[in-house]
Amino acid sequence: MTSHDPGLPSATPETRAAFRRLILSLADSKRILGIRYSDWLLGAPSIEAGIAASSMAQDEWGHARLLYATLKDFDVDPVRIEHDRPAEAYASVDPLDAPLEDWAAVVAAMFIVDGALAAALEGVLEGGYESIGGRIGKMLGEEEFHASLAAAWAERLAGSEGEGRERFRGAVTAMLPGTLRFLAPDDDAHRALVMAGLTLSADELKGRFAEKVGGVLEGLGLTLEGAGDAEGEWDAGRGRGAGHPDEETIECARGDRNRALFVE
Amino acid sequence: MEETTFDVFARKNRGDALFHIGYIEAPDPAMARVYAWKTYDEENWFEMCIVPRSEILPVNRTDGPFAAGGRIGRSA
Fold first, then answer.
1. Residues 41-70 of A with CB under 8 A from B
2. pTM reported for the whole predicted model
3. Minimal CA–CA distance to A154: which of A175, A177, A183, A123?
4. H/E stretch holding B10
5. pLDDT for the residue A260
6. To probe the interface with A, which of B31, B39, B44 has the most A CB atoms within 10 Å?
7. Are the beta carbons of B17 and B65 closer than 8 angstroms?
């Protein structure tokens, strides 16, 4: 593994922009995922599940903060990037654009989206970008508990009969195409990162993801290969599809109302 | 969904005694591990472990909080 200096001073402008895109898309995804988890502090199937959702929300927001801070290496002001962007500028993974409508969708997000984000982080860790390696190790340590909970719930729902299984299968089916396209983009920016050794190839990332989710998908009668194409045009600038999270969620992420009163 | 009571034990430092710090309820041990870690995360624990309450065998009394096992006597 080659070590890469902060800011990638010897890389091409295209590679620097691609790495900035990757880090921002991971940070935004974790920020929105934290909000989606936090929606289920109340209404989870048990108080313990609600506490776990709360704790995972805190983890995701912490991860997002660390990833945003890394953007300073690329002359990006983390405060502005966290608080001054419209919803259309968010680079979060497509399946998080709308709130999760039931616990089956929460488990699907834990399992599919959070699993894909962990695979993407593994790619960055193995890419050897120097100033972020230790932080990603800590994040992946926390993600092990998310993965354990996701697997336990996913196996339970996939192995059940009736509405729970069907709702979970429906949510997984809906999330897979956009998640796969986000994780393993088929574009020049991702290829530049792979060429520079800053992350894993699309096939390797899909392989990592398959190791995490393949068994449960099989139990649901689904495969990664059969996931189908993601909807909407690819937005190469953000590294995701053409949509964006709902405005209400982004107002919450930016902290608009109370920030104006108490911070600025 | 049938749930089991798991008692949670932890120590802050290597060599410390293992303390009973609480309990959680979960459908299976895999979920119980995460629930325990996420529920009792106020300390930076060196070690945490969980035990199904039904596996704890009372030694000196039959009316203690652990004596009934399972979901009964949840105030241990």
1. 45-46, 48-49, 51-52, 54-56
2. 0.91
3. A175
4. strand B4-11
5. 76
6. B31
7. no
